[in-house]
Amino acid sequence: MDFNTADDNVMRRIRAMNQRVQGLKEADLYFYNLPVQEIKGGARVVVQGREMGMYASYSYLGLLGHPRINRAAKEAIDRFGSGTHGVRTLAGTLTIHQELEETIAAFKHAEAAITFSSGYATNLTVISTLMGRGDYVISDKLNHASIVDGCLMSGAEFRRFRHNDMEDLERRLQQVPPDAAKLVIADAVFSMDGDIIDLPRVVELCRKYNAWLMIDEAHSVGVLGETGRGIEEHFGMEDVIDIKMGTLSKTIPSVGGYVAGRKELINYLRHASRAYIFSAALPPAQAAAANEAFKVILDEPWRIQRLRENTEIFIKGLKSAGFDTMLTQTAIVPILCGSDERAFMMTRACHHRDIFVLPVVSPAVPEGLARLRATVTAAHEPEDIEHAIEVMIESGREIGLIS
Ligand SMILES: *Cc1c(COP(=O)(O)O)cnc(C)c1O
């Protein structure tokens, strides 16, 4: 089958991407979209008939497949069925949605919460609902794509500050007209680097310059803080973030996104954000699974402790072998490779030794900073991690990344 159109810019872009993918496949250097056949307790997966150690999971606390969470999802299907009657505003709101939002609000020590069908949609809709023409959004350079897209979609003036650089943030804030509405936005834990935003300083600057603060906790819920409540708990700060955003697809083994905050704000979003008004409600099973997962986190605090220990073993082991793990302090552990090709080769070497990791290359990260992005979870045993480190050392030597 051919397209209706002749050779134009769109066609050239489509062809260029297809050729890049095809070239990588032919060189056995393509690792994306691999179908996982089986997930064995979170730490191991079966891929293309081979059982592999899993080091690319966002299920940081190992909650995927947890019996209590699975049971809650099944019961919700039996009670409500597999879908909803449509959007939340009309017939789509179920009691399980309200329960979930109350659970999130309590977990995040906020007055109220609202959920959406994905984290991506949450960032798009929340930023573009709150901000508009004439306003200013000020975003960390390494923020997640969904934040960037939300900022662009809002039509507000879009300014970016150097990654986690508070002097640069202050400079940006000074450049904004004092009476313009402004929103400062950052990831809590950066999704490609694993480092943590300097929240105390960001809060100080937001107060000084009268700016709203939104933090994306996709990789910090269940990861940061003594009881896994996230970045405010990590820094011992109580309720300093105006818009506490997170996803239900990482530590929380479901799908969806949320914002927690003041009642007035949440009520506004419920009546003004387009992803809430014009897109179907979360399916009951996913809402129930998410609701139960927040409770499991509080009931099983050993998981957070375990994640912390595993993270330390992993980062220490890699560093002492000579790998550059950049500035990570969390379960997201970049292993810097340099060129895209080296990252692909490192991935292939690990896969051949049954360790499942994935490369992140440009344009997701700057050219020359291609890396493996490995993750550890509470589901790993310390011996598993030692073995994974051994494999990475062998692989790193094989491709000349370490000596
Ligand atoms: C994964 C992620 C999202 C998107 O969440 P989904 O629920 O997968 O759509 C948003 N922000 C950050 C920082 C993320 O890592």
What does this entry look like structurally?
By secondary structure, the protein is an alpha/beta fold. The protein has two domains: 27-56 and 301-399, Alpha-Beta Complex (Aspartate Aminotransferase, domain 1), CATH 3.90.1150; 67-299, Type I PLP-dependent aspartate aminotransferase-like (Major domain) (Aspartate Aminotransferase, domain 2). Helices cover 43% and strands 17% of the residues. It is built from 15 helices and 14 strands. The chain has helices at 9-26, 67-80, 88-92, 95-107, 119-130, 145-154, 166-175, 199-208, 231-234, 263-272, 274-277, 284-299, 302-320, 340-352, 382-398; strands at residues 36-40, 44-47, 50-54, 112-116, 136-140, 157-161, 182-187, 212-216, 243-247, 257-261, 332-338, 355-356, 358-360, 370-375. It has a seven-stranded mixed beta sheet with strand order 4-10-9-8-7-5-6, sandwiched between helices. It has a four-stranded mixed beta sheet with strand order 1-2-3-12. Strand 1 and strand 2 (44-47) form a beta hairpin. Helix 13 packs parallel to helix 15 (382-398). The chain is globular. The chain starts with 8 loop residues before the first helix and ends in a 5-residue tail after the last helix. Bound molecules: pyridoxal-5'-phosphate. The site of pyridoxal-5'-phosphate has 14 residues, from helix 5.
Task: Draw up the topology in text.
Blueprint: H1 9-26, E1 36-40, E2 44-47, E3 50-54, H2 67-80, H3 88-92, H4 95-107, E4 112-116, H5 119-130, E5 136-140, H6 145-154, E6 157-161, H7 166-175, E7 182-187, H8 199-208, E8 212-216, H9 231-234, E9 243-247, E10 257-261, H10 263-272, H11 274-277, H12 284-299, H13 302-320, E11 332-338, H14 340-352, E12 355-356, E13 358-360, E14 370-375, H15 382-398
Helix pairs in contact: 2-12, 4-12, 5-6, 13-15, 14-15
Residues 118-120, 123, 144, 146, 187, 191, 216, 218-219, 247, 249, 257 line the site of pyridoxal-5'-phosphate.
